[in-house]
Design goal:
Its EC number is 3.5.1.1. The protein is an alpha/beta fold and 160 residues long. The chain contains 5 helices and 6 strands; from the N terminus they run βββαβαβαβαα. Helices cover 31% and strands 16% of the residues. Helix 1 (45-52) runs parallel beside helix 2 (74-85). The mean pLDDT is 89.
């Protein structure tokens, strides 16, 4: 929305202005059972396993490399698939400061798709955390959450 340097340059086209005719809706049903798994070279299976098996966890934000890539390790994809099959939502978010996750563009992200991981598109980590907490607290099904994660609800992403 802005570039900060000596001066701040605002990109007005990125700013989402609210509809003044819409009544403010305060969200009170929030579920905080969300965690972040930041990938790094040399990450161990025990680290990944521990995060994916946090008691009560419902969603994981997977901070991946580049356009949404992950290490090509069979155990890694198996851990993700098992978590996904247990009903844990796993959202792929690039660690890059700009750009978007392109699920299936490269082999490693295709393996993520096969493991049940869904795209976080170009959302910031903070936006995905807030969105997940609201959706987990308000939505009645994973299908509804998955759908709402793929669309912009309040200007948090440029896709959808």
């Amino acid at each position: 929305m802005a570039k900060a340097g000596v001066h701040i340059k605002y990109f007005r086209s990125y700013i989402h202005y609210p509809d003044i005719d819409t009544k403010l809706r305060v969200r009170t049903q929030i579920d905080q059972n969300v965690a972040v798994l930041k990938l790094f070279p040399g990450i161990t299976r025990s680290t990944v396993h521990a995060i994916l098996n946090i008691s009560g966890i419902k969603a994981i934000i997977l901070e991946s490399f580049g356009a949404g890539n992950a290490p090509r390790l069979d155990w890694f994809f198996q851990e993700l698939k098992e978590a996904s099959e247990r009903g844990i939502l796993i959202i792929n978010k690039s660690q890059c400061s700009t750009g978007t996750v392109e699920m299936g563009r490269y082999e490693t992200s295709l393996n993520l798709v096969n493991a049940g991981v869904i795209s976080g598109y170009d959302c910031t980590t903070e936006a995905i955390i807030a969105k997940l907490m609201c959706l987990l607290g308000e939505c009645s099904s994973q299908a509804e959450i998955r759908h709402k994660l793929s669309i912009s609800l309040c200007g948090e992403m440029t896709l959808g």
